[in-house]
Amino acid sequence: MKKKLISILTVALSCMLVLGGCGGKGKTTETPKDTGKSGPVEGYVKAADPSKNVSLAKDRKDTLVIGIDVLDGVFNPLYSDSAYDSYIMESIFTGMLAIDENGLPTEALAESYKISEDGKTYSFKLRDGLKFEDGTPLTTEDVAFTFTAACDKEYDGPQDFINTTKIKGAKAYKEGTASTIEGIKVIDQKNIEFIVDEANADAIFDFKTEILSKAYYGKEYKQGNLNYIKGLHAKPLGCGAYKFVENKPGQEVDLVANENYYLGKAKITNLIYKVTSETTRIQMLQTGDIDMDMVTVNEDNVAQLQGAGFLDLCIFPTNGYGYIGLDVKNEKFTDPKVRQALTYGLNRAEVVEAVYPGGYADVINEPQSTKSWAYSKGKNDYAYDKEKASKLLDEAGWKVGSDGIREKDGKKFEIKFTASTPNAVNDALIPVAQANYKELGIKFEAEQMDGAALREQVKSGKSEMFFMAWGLTPQIDNTGILGTSGAQNYTGYSNSKLDELFVKGLKETDMEKRKAIYAEVYQLINEDLPYIFMYQRRDMWAVNSRVKGFENQITPYKKFTQSLYKLTLE
Fold first, then answer.
1. What is the pTM for the complete model shown?
2. Could you give the CA distance from residue 46 to residue 49 in angstroms, rounded to a whole number?
3. Which CATH architecture has domain 93-232?
4. Where in the chain is CATH 3.10.105.10?
5. Strands (E), 173-288
6. What pLDDT, in 10s, does the model give residues 483-542?
7. How many helices (H) and strands (E) in the chain?
8. Which CATH architecture has domain 40-69+241-317+539-569?
């Protein structure tokens, strides 16, 4: 399963997805709102004067150019672990299910599906005539291969059908004590069943995993032999709206419309994902070098984009959050009092306002969107309080030494913070953290590196403190990143009580009872603080007004990649 927390991102514009429509209010704004002190702009804001559009964009009659951050080049639905790689992957691949604008599962490659009364059997029927981009048929054998590969002992990607979806027999297959997965049953070329060991309220979302071609990706596959598949990450073959053409590392990825797409060939022939950065993307939108990009939302950026006259804006609360991760296995961070002290002792509001001025982000203390049905506020708001932070450090045994640096058992309290660059959040965070923690008697040093290097350090457990962000999906379970055995738990956090609550929450199907369980989850997390939670912000997509079809198609839940096939150029 692709975890609820689908990607680690290392830029200020990292998380995506929230309950409700664009802007969280379901409104379409026909004219730009004032960007003054009355509050942040939200909703779908149409361009004020499309006639100002530039020739570089208008002359591109058959090509859509979308700005994107740096890529890892992993274009495979079982392995993509970055939101930016995922955009490309989702343009090339499709799953049995998709997510609609309200965050609910809807049919895609599957014509229909049903869940048994006991919640343990999922039956899917594929549409007629499905094909991969090379014209070969897409059948339930391909579906079975996709889910089987993710349960192989050599699989090391973010999916976790074994521990979270709990497909029957998947663990035995991974351990090599079974040669097939008991819970995957191919009925015929169009019908397939999945049987799980126990009911799971979030499991239906797991079946939106994009499908791989067994003929292409499984040609060399034998149980226990999967590493070869990584050689195909940069040579994807899928069944989505577009086909892969070329990856020019550090520059762009070129795609072309797939004539075999089940919803029909995309109306725009060519799609280019062009690499941009925090410092270039607004200018590239203004000059017409790109048609669309996600831009950090703040008053200045909104004003600049609206000032161009020909750019539509879509602004909505993100279903995700920025956080400071801590290696909780490190003796400095094992005590919850220390984690609380580091949270009280950091002026998070100052950092958030510096990056998102004008009310475009809010400080948070729980790992959930405030718009989610499951959200529950913890009792501690951890407002900046140097005295309280100092007291907690004293209680944890970290005393101020003669040189002004705290120490315990002969060891100095020194933090090595690894930071991606360029990154607007880190630019604001580092000086504030250095100053705040110095006052507490903590030495804070930052080491900067590019985003890919940081992700590798974090995933390998080599970073003791870092800033990143999680983007959420409609699933609300946190097992993947905060569960003791979570596939994306990169900080080593473990809390047996929390593990129990995660299991309880997944087994409960009654919405109100689930809400009560997750209220306990967020209360516990708020107290124990596996992370230093930073903010929930707004997302903003800027789209050239010549691109038609995006209005009401980009929502917190529904990604733009689902609508690519229907877009047109004016």
1. 0.73
2. 9
3. Alpha-Beta Complex (3.90)
4. 329-537
5. 184-186, 191-195, 242-248, 252-257, 270-275
6. 999 989 999 999 999 999 999 998 887 878 999 999 999 999 999 999 999 999 988 999
7. 15, 26
8. 3-Layer(aba) Sandwich (3.40)
